[in-house]
Amino acid sequence: MSGPSVALTQPTSMGATALVEGVSATAGFAIMAGLLFATAPHNGEFWYSDAPRHALNGAFVKDLIAAMPRDPEAWAADYYIRYPALTILFYPPLFYVVLAPFYAVFGVSHATALAVEMLHYVLLALGTYALARRWFGPIAAFGVGLAVMASPEAALWGRQVMLDIPALAFAVWAMVALGRYLDTKRGSLLYLAVFLLLCAVYTKINAAFLFPVLALTILASKGWGALRERNIQLAALFAVAGMVPIAVLTVKFGGANLQSVLGAADVPVSRFSLANLVWYAQELPSLTGWPLLLLAIAGAILFAARRDGLLTRTDAVLLGSWFIVSYLFLTMIDLKGTRHALILLPPILVAAGLAASSLLPRRRLGEFTLLVFVVVLGIHTLRDVPVPSVSGYRSAAEWIAAHAGKNAIVLFSGERDGSYIFNLRQADNGQDITTLRSDKLLLSIAVSRELGVEQRSYSEEEIASLLDRDGVSYVVAQDGFWTDLAVMARLETVLRSPHFVEVMQLPIVANVPTSDKRLRIYRNAGEVNPHPGPFDVELPIIGRTLNGKAQRE
After folding, report:
1. Pair 367, 515 in one domain
2. Residue 6's pLDDT is what?
3. What is the pTM for the complete model shown?
4. In terms of domains, do 511 and 539 share one?
5. How many Cα atoms sit within 13 Å of 9 on the Cβ side?
6. Residue 3 and which of 18, 47, 448, 541 are 20 to 30 A apart at CA?
7. Which long-range contacts (C-beta less than 8 Å, at least 24 apart) are formed by 308-313?
8. pLDDT digit string (tens) for 198-213?
9. Please, what is the Cα angle at 228 between 222 and 234, to 5 degrees?
10. What's the Rg (C-alpha) of the chain?
């Protein structure tokens, strides 16, 4: 009787222990997420231009589902006319689909969007913990998972409404599922790995870099005979079929993304140069901090010398190809940015855990040392690395929502149009206020001003007449916005003429240097057209012109 009793008791005990460890780790990550949320701007103080656009895209999905229009294309055009900061097809859509039900329950707000970002952050840390738990004890695995939240660069972009952390969360869980598949040979786990990696791609497209990693890891484990296995063949077809829609969307609507890969005009380094090859290597210290980076380098050396005793050949292919393949793909992209290197973070942190678990005579001491490093890094990140924030745009949007009146048409002229427009959507409360952008009214810009701009040759009288004709009752304008361009200087002259009356000044307050210092709100004293016609909005980035109307009764 004793034999069967032991066999039944042991797995139950191990399962209970794993459950307690997992719950404890999740609680720790949730606490860290709460601290990150508390130290992040979440009241409309957007700094990075893409963040409010991602938040607004989720509102679009939520409003589209609520409206259930008979003509979705026309409805979408009208929505863009009202809120001309949408990028819904320029980026993959999954994060916005996830965000929409949270908006439906908790309301459209910066805080709601950031809370959803934090949810993904917890899932990323938990996935990194699960991945590290394959090789390390619970203390080291928790340290590795916590490190992905304590990293200054990850915490910077994870405390904004951005796609990097959500995409990485899906990618890490895909690799966890891949590892379980290789352990158990269960085909369902392979399909889950492919599905999760597709979810990562449909959140941020550069996660596609990891499909070769998945394939190389399977080949390292099974050899070329894997190509004859039915589950692997079907999983490959699943992956290819899943990539087709996002490829079509990227070609059709993501021209700027393709340009950043294939030939951006303002690249910091030449693609075929040593400076390009080492560009991301130079950014690694800011990605992880020097202590963890040095541990990671030591871990790589230990494995190369076959002195770690923890990784199998397949493990090494998974982690090594994750880093090398992703790094090589990053070097081929002309657009550079440290945040893009976040895809490298999990294998680097696992390598750091490998060193901490192997260098000291007692493994437990090494694991505690790693955890101490990470906790110190987290304290430094929370205390000394604030997230940039820029306030003033929410106040402007709330003033307009309170004073402009139902169905008003307002011109916005400033560089943070996304922040103003999302805050207006948050504050609208059924006012159905439409925003026109001065850069779209008076200029033609493909992606950014640095890549080229064309001015329309309007005189001051024509600008005033244009605003009257388009029904613009108020203008929210940043002082000196692009006034080095003649037509934008004329707009500012018109706003300071008797044709407009200044009714409010709002200071722009930031914790980082910015060129925008003050917003002014003007009321149109001219004869405003009460029934403006449909608006044409050029979208040079996708080679289309939208025709839509303001939502007026």
Report:
1. no
2. 35
3. 0.92
4. yes
5. 6
6. 18
7. 308/354, 308/357, 308/358, 309/358, 310/135, 310/136, 310/354, 310/357, 310/358, 311/135, 311/354, 313/220
8. 999 999 999 999 999 9
9. 100
10. 26
What residue numbers bound the domain in which 482 lies? Answer: 390-548
Q: Which residues pair with 509 in a beta bridge?
A: 391
Q: Do residues 348 and 403 share a domain?
A: no
Within a domain: 143: yes
Pair 362, 410 in one domain? no
Cα–Cα distance measured from residue 217 to residue 210, given in angstroms and rounded to the nearest whole number = 11
> How many residues in total does the chain contain?
553
Is 270 inside a domain boundary? yes
Take residue 150 and report the two structure tokens written for it: 């304590």
At 341, the amino acid letter reads A
- The amino acid sitting at 10 is Q
Which pLDDT does position 533 carry in this prediction? 77
CA angle 278, 281, 287 (to 5 degrees): 150
* Rounded CA separation 520/148 (Å): 41
Rounded mean pLDDT of the chain?
Answer: 89
Pairing of strands 390-391, 409-413: unpaired
> Rounded CA gap, 244 and 242, in Å?
6
Helix 138-150 / helix 363-384 crossing angle, nearest 10 deg: 20
Average pLDDT, integer, range 81-98: 92
Domain's final residue, options 384, 415, 445: 384
